[in-house]
């Protein structure tokens, strides 16, 4: 496979979306960043104070890619190391690039090499004589890795991804039936879909990005309010601000930021359909930047302790309180776009 | 004749953005401990960039940039027409509001925007001041897959503002190495009268 790293990733692309984009770009799918459509807020608690989470996702990733764009994401999960490697080799032999999740601890070029166990995603694009060829778009790198190092790295046991239940996770993307011509009604339908989540409607049909039903979930601005209250409560007691707590906070907030950026690429397909969509895009970009700042502050809090960490959490709290009215504005603009569309449809039938 | 006031920032520096290989001094510009390769930054305190004088931090000083956290910078009371900055953002590009005060009164507020230090192209019309060959990691190696940049950004005020303090925003992903204020040209003003 003659795949090369892209010249410059787009804002909001994380390691996984970078891999998907690489495959779509390789298969000459135009506007490949515009396939990410869901953009909500979901808050869940699993009983303990540490496990309050917030996410932009409310349906399975593969469903998001299938909807409108007809792109099919095959997800493989297993605990059987030998079958993983043989299957990956088989896929590569068939000319399929393979998205693999791995632990960066033993990846020499990674900035976290031998510093932290951390789940990361890259693309395998070939195999020859015990060496796997890979592309890591995050580092704009194409290189090889020997089979044993890869096998060790593929084991996600010491990363947070083990919480999903399996040691090994890898993906293949089928874009042979991809539809990239987004119709006007598709734009409004997606805005409506996200709006319903942000206004806490239909919360009983929501799932995680892995397709698990969400239980006791709060959505939209209510989700953000609960998350802010939760942080306020935890910040009052420094013993609650554990390493795991701040790491999860960083994961959640950076995911929300990336999600808002990615959604603007989908909306860009609708600029010609409605005069206010450009305004919505501009607002989403600004909101995404604010979420990115908060996520970076959560990241920084991982590297301090005690009162310094508490101080950083208080700063984060203030930033989230500033984000809240911005998310509310997005809802108002979305309503305005949909209302004008309704009026235009009514006018058509008069 | 144009007059500038380069701010002495030594008392405000709170972050180390430069690493030095030979001395094994590792910076901490980003959260993961990455930094600029300090040997590629000229060791020069008095700089002139685009005809604007700056006071640049001394090489190998413990701290050499301001990581923004609502710092209040005292400046000589005067009418100023612009503020120029040498700086960069890390882990994203950001814009925030800077406040300009006269004593306890907010006189003016204007956005300051800085591009990510590893971006090739500026997002906010900055100019390249220094471009280094790579990123110096916490483990002491130089990654050359991405170059790193210190930018020149200038904020022009719509009209001269009378101030004696600048209040920076709260954004630990924005870093300032040097700040220079441009004074109102009072001679021209007198001539006009």
Automatic annotation (TrEMBL), chain A:
This is Butirosin biosynthesis protein H N-terminal domain-containing protein. Residues 60-130 form the Butirosin biosynthesis protein H N-terminal domain. It comes from Paenibacillus nuruki. It comes from the Bacteria. Pfam families: BtrH_N (PF14399).
TrEMBL record, chain B:
It comes from the Bacteria. This is Uncharacterized protein.
């Amino acid at each position: 496979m003659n795949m090369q790293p892209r010249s410059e990733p787009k804002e909001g692309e994380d390691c996984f979306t970078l891999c998907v984009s690489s495959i779509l770009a390789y298969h000459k799918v135009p506007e490949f960043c515009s396939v990410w459509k869901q953009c909500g807020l979901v808050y869940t608690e699993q009983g303990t104070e540490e496990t309050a989470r917030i996410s932009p996702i409310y349906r399975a990733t593969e469903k998001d890619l299938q909807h409108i764009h007809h792109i099919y994401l095959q997800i493989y999960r297993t605990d059987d190391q030998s079958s993983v490697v043989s299957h990956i080799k088989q896929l590569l032999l068939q000319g399929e690039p393979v998205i693999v999740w791995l632990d960066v601890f033993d990846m020499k070029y990674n900035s976290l090499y031998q510093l932290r166990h951390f789940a990361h995603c890259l693309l395998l694009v070939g195999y020859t004589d015990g060496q796997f060829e890979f592309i890591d778009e995050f580092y704009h790198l194409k290189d090889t890795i020997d089979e044993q190092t890869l096998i060790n790295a593929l084991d996600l046991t010491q990363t947070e991804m083990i919480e999903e239940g399996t040691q090994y996770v890898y993906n293949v993307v089928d874009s042979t039936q991809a539809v990239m011509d987004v119709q006007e009604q598709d734009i409004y339908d997606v805005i409506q879909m996200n709006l319903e989540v942000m206004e806490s409607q239909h919360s009983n049909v929501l799932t995680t990005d892995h397709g698990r039903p969400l239980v006791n979930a709060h959505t939209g601005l209510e989700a953000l309010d609960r998350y802010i209250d939760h942080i306020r409560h935890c910040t009052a007691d420094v013993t609650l601000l554990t390493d795991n707590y701040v790491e999860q906070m960083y994961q959640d907030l950076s995911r929300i930021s990336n999600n808002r950026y990615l959604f603007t690429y989908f909306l860009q397909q609708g600029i010609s359909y409605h005069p206010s969509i450009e305004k919505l895009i501009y607002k989403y970009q600004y909101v995404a930047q604010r979420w990115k700042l908060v996520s970076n502050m959560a990241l920084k809090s991982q590297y301090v302790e005690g009162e310094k960490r508490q101080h950083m959490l208080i700063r984060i709290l203030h930033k989230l309180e500033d984000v809240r009215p911005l998310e509310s504005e997005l809802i108002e603009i979305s309503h305005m776009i949909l209302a004008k569309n309704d009026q235009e449809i009514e006018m058509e039938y008069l | 004749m144009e007059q500038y006031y380069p701010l002495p920032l030594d008392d405000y520096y709170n972050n180390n953005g430069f690493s030095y290989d030979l001395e094994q001094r590792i910076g901490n510009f980003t959260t993961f401990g990455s930094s600029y390769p300090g040997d590629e930054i000229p060791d020069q305190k008095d700089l002139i960039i685009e005809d604007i004088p700056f006071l640049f931090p001394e090489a190998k000083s413990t701290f050499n940039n301001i990581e923004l956290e609502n710092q209040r910078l005292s400046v000589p009371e005067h009418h100023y027409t612009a503020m120029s900055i040498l700086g960069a953002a890390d882990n994203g590009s950001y814009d925030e509001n800077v406040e300009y005060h006269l004593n306890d009164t907010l006189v003016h507020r204007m956005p300051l925007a800085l591009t990510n230090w590893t971006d090739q192209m500026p997002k906010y019309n900055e100019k390249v001041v220094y471009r280094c060959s790579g990123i110096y990691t916490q483990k002491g190696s130089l990654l050359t897959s991405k170059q790193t940049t210190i930018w020149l950004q200038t904020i022009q005020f719509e009209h001269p503002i009378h101030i004696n303090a600048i209040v920076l925003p709260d954004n630990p992903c924005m870093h300032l190495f040097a700040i220079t204020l441009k004074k109102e040209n009072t001679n021209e003003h007198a001539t006009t009268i």
